[in-house]
Amino acid sequence: MKALARAAIGIAGVALVAMAGIQAWQVFARYVLNDPPSWTEPLALLCMSTTMMFGAAAGVHAGRHFGFFFVV
After folding, report:
1. Residue 48 lies in a domain
2. With a threshold of 0.90, does the pTM exceed it?
3. Which of 12, 13, 65, 68 is the most exposed place for a label (fewest CB within 10 A)?
4. Quick check: 67 pLDDT over 90?
5. Confidence check: pLDDT of 1 > 90
6. How many domains does the chain have?
7. What angle do CA 56, 15, 28 make, to 5 degrees?
């Protein structure tokens, strides 16, 4: 199971980097080329979903809980 959790983290990392690259291309194409592609938003959402699902699976395996912590 440890190898499967590492693979999930790897897939989540690749999807996160891909999402950042896709969003960067969207911004470049919209503001520099003035011709935004229509495929970037759905693909970025797919990458975000992949990152969340595989990251959550690895977190459950590790016994960790995701949370937001505020320092007041």
Report:
1. yes
2. no
3. 68
4. no
5. no
6. 1
7. 135
Q: CA nearest 12: which of 42, 69, 57?
A: 57
Structure confidence by residue, pLDDT tens digits, 17-49: 999 999 999 999 999 999 889 999 999 999 999
12 domain-assigned: yes
Residue 48 neighbours by CB under 8 Å, 6+ apart: 15, 19
Dist CA 60 CA 38 (whole Å) = 35
Tokens of 54: 């595989």
Roughly how many angstroms between the first and final C-alpha of the chain, as a whole number? Answer: 39
Distance CA 34, CA 68 (A): 37
For residue 62 the two structure tokens come to 């590790």
Q: What angle do CA 14, 40, 38 make, to 5 degrees?
A: 160
8 token code pair? 């999930």
